[in-house]
Input
Amino acid sequence: MPSKLEALNRWVDDVARLTQPDQIHWCDGSDAEAAALRAQMLADGTLIELNQTTHPGCTLHRSHPSDVARVEHLTLVCTKNQADAGPNNHWMEPTQAHAKIDALFAGCMKGRTLYVIPYCMGPIDSPLSRCGVEITDSPYVVANMRIMTRMGSAALARIEREGNFVKGLHSTGELDPQRRFIMHFPEELTIKSYGSGYGGNALLGKKCHALRIASWQARTEGWLAEHMLIVGIENPQGQTHYIAAAFPSACGKTNLAMLIPPEGYRQAGWKVWTIGDDICWMRPGADGRLYAINPEAGFFGVAPGTDHGTNPNALASIQRDTIYTNVAVTADLQPWWEGLKEGAPVTDWQGRPYDPANGPAAHPNSRFTVSARQAPSWSPKAEDAQGVPISAIVFGGRRPSLVPLVFEARDWAHGVLVGAAMGSETTAAATGAVGVMRRDSMAMKPFCGYNYGDYFAHWLSFDKAGAKLPKIFHVNWFRKGADGKFLWPGFGENLRVLEWIIERCEGRAGAQETAIGLLPRAQDLHTQGLALREGALDELLAIDLPRWAAEVEDIGRYLDSFGEHTPARLHAEQRRVAAELASAQTPQKRAAVAS
Ligand code: O2Y
Ligand code: MN
Output
């Protein structure tokens, strides 16, 4: 038997009996195995070799045109009681769900190889890490999982030692959108995914395990599994603060995780260290602080928009040994996407001669898969078994109006309310309805594996005797002026906001107490050398009290939507902020405080 763990062998046997593969391959994660799989995929057209002079080791995969993104309406959380999944999840009763998806799996691997991928989410020797095994019939998934996780023999050894693992069963099936499901059974620590070969639907270590299943495990075991980047900010004195930040998908998490300091900051000695760009697991340490690991080992980043100007570190990372998915290519087979200044597309993401009449050359959700170690900003602390101590948690969304550039929550419970209320206003491109508020609590709406009300209660439970919790902040890089233009330049300049956040954590920066939280005054932010428009900073730091009162009322209705699962403490916090806003609308001015 390939494994010393009887339960694992039994599960592989059961799956093989159901899916009937021609052969079974246990992945060891070796270079030889990766080379053989690559050769096989180049031979059968699953991968296309890109220009090996400009992009050594890089390949391109074109997914089925109907299989290009996560599919939230087909993503289910299957708990015995529907209330445990909550109104934030699509739900199916587990017995019915197993029957439905097992019927799809029956015989689906005939003529194919069944790959067994043992993997570890997080450093292989970390007590914060958790293991899983993905069974798949896709060699492309194997190649991606090798980059995105610690995969192979070392993971198998840990699984055999611990005796438990998350089970993930995946088949690309016929890639028919009518026969596609991504099902989660958190009570059984099991995932079943059928009919998609793409990203979050197929690389089961990522969203399915590290967020949906892990959030459930985290609640049971007293930790947090979050949709957050982790970044280290080193000041000129050589002290590094680690920040965990949650933004909804496609709001620039990878850019912030790999931020390049503005020239003046670079010269002064500021450095930015990337720990992770998408997922963060946090747990209280013996000293009461929260310690975080990035459970992933690579980046599955959005290609369009990545360039020297927006994310030079990402661009530098993906010049070699990268799997590209659904990008366009130039005449000399270099990868290309919208926003890349150099080169021009001749073949689009579907392999057709590029014609602007067919839409963008690269699919808007086209991706690169690359080892995190290839980022020039990659932090060696990302391998630390105990994780990094988190000084600040930052929430943010796309809020063209109302929400200031940055504010600090007055305490943990207020911070949980701020995270619960976060979200984005829709743009015309997304839905057709402009300016509609879509709340996405802690950026976990598509990823929380249980009832959001219970999740808020879990967050609140960290505030207990002995805890030395991070401060919580909210940022908004997307505020627009009356002319519809962004008021804040964003990208590297965001470090100025992070500097204030860090100095607040150190007790060094000033702030003004307001009804919605603590805001920097203009003089508290370092804006030297920044070409802001006249009045922009005042607008970025202003609070429109009547509109905020309406916002907080809306937050109250949102909390009500989770019924009795929403903790009373959070309702009380919402009422406290509403009352503060009501009293702030009287003429008395609130005192400005310096820390
Ligand atoms: O569409 C997909 O399958 C990828 S989704 C994704 C990938 C990397 C990081 N974040 C996300 C996300 O949707 O949040
Ligand atoms: Mn994400």
User: Anything to note?
Assistant: The radius of gyration is 24 Å. The domain at 299-374 is CATH 2.170.8.10 (Phosphoenolpyruvate Carboxykinase; domain 2).
